[in-house]
Amino acid sequence: MKFKRFISVFLLCTCLTGLFLTPAAGALEVPDIQAKAALLADVNTDAVAYAKNIHEKNYPASLTKVMTALLILEKVSGNETLLNQEVTASESAFSDTYYHADGSSAGIKAGEVMTVKQLLQCMLIVSANEACNILAEWDAGSIAAFVDAMNATAKALGCENTHFVNPSGLHDPDHYTSAWDLYLITKAAMQYPEFMEICDSAKAVIPATNLSKERTLYTTNHLLSTWRVIGYRDKRAHGIKTGSTSDAGHCLISSAQEGELHFVSVVMGAERIEENGVGNLLNFSETSHLFDYGFKNFAYRTILEDKEIIQEVPVSLSKTDYVTVHPANNVESLFPRDLDPAELDRVISLPETVEAPVTAGDKLGTMELRDGDTVYASVDLLASSDVTADKFMVFRHNVTLFFKKPAVKTVAIVLAVLLVLLVIFRLTGLSRRRRYGRNARSYSRGYRGRRHR
User: Fold this and answer.
1) Which of 245, 251, 342, 346 is deepest in the core (most CB within 10 A)?
2) Is the preceding omega at residue 351 within 30 degrees of 0, hence cis?
3) Distance between CA atoms of 56 and 36, rounded to whole angstroms?
4) Which tens digit of pLDDT belongs to each residue from 308-336?
5) How far apart (Å, rounded) are the C-alpha atoms in residues 2 and 8?
6) Sign of the alpha-carbon dihedral angle for 386, 391, 396, 398
7) CA 139 – CA 124 distance, rounded (Å)
8) CB half-sphere exposure, 76, CA atoms < 13 A
9) Is 272 in contact with 281 (CB distance < 8 Å)?
10) How far apart are the first and last CA of the chain?
11) Rounded-to-integer distance, Cα 61 and Cα 127, Å
12) What is the pLDDT of residues 63-73, one digit of tens each?
């Protein structure tokens, strides 16, 4: 009997221990992406699903070419005449300052004639450095002027940790950017249909030119094709750009879309490691891990409705004591599937009191929805109804304010001082008159006395 009781207690304890040690169902398992910096951002809302050192300066290598493409597409997008305009490669495009013979190339030669679109294909599909220089000279007159435009555009986009030295991404200690800045640049480039059309191409055929036979370009992006390397193909991936130097490591910008979700990923400074005797380029495999994480764990959810009454705000100058506030709009956000919106912290900023009159829809404050350091939404808080002012209260308030004005206070002090002086003067004069009167009466009595004697 005692043995059975012991077994029962033992089994109960075992079950309870298992209950407490088992992770909660659906708990968010955040991956540790093996790279210097990594970002997964939602294109539709700019919400960040994953971040690792996203504002840290890193060398971008050929990810730079996204900015170069952006500037060219700003000029030619939608214009078939410009896209098909022929450009002759100059000798200066191959100068030592902006070109290294051992860098990535499409085999373009000085004097060769290609169209703008073909040069964009060489730049984005096989990462041809010389194509960047040729397009930069065609667009800005010189590579140096084009680089100035790159930096000006980066600043205009809100990039705070970016500085370019060349249009291709050749290593230079002063040539750097961040994962977040690259996201901003990439999102700007994605608005041009030609950009995604080209950078999402597994291959492209360049017809024969004046100096070359027909050539076929095969993408350097292993998520899009198995032509160069097998083992990385990810059918969710679309584009965008690879980059690699010994200083920058292995880098990749990619995008993926499932249903309503549309992510852009940035991986910088990844390594090539050996796994079971097989090389693994982590910029590709870690990008797929980011997509797995994003699509599995996030969804668009309404986390706040505009009809919800948030708080009462005291009202002065009115017989109505308070006015309620509500969110300015419904708030939909990229949101973890395992997190309840009701668990978010609400950081509310409202005045201690507001003065009547108040009109329904007036902005009275703001509210942030937070989970720790993560801000999921920031929304204005609006008055729910009109509140009229009481005329007598307003008059009394205005009178009080009038007498609190510095100028009025100064005048009042001056008047008070004058009044005090006047009173003193009157009292002093009255005292003198009284003394004069007493002296006069004394003199009169003395004079009459002397006459009687």
Assistant:
1) 251
2) no
3) 9
4) 999 999 999 999 999 999 999 999 999 99
5) 10
6) positive
7) 17
8) 24
9) yes
10) 146
11) 10
12) 999 999 999 99
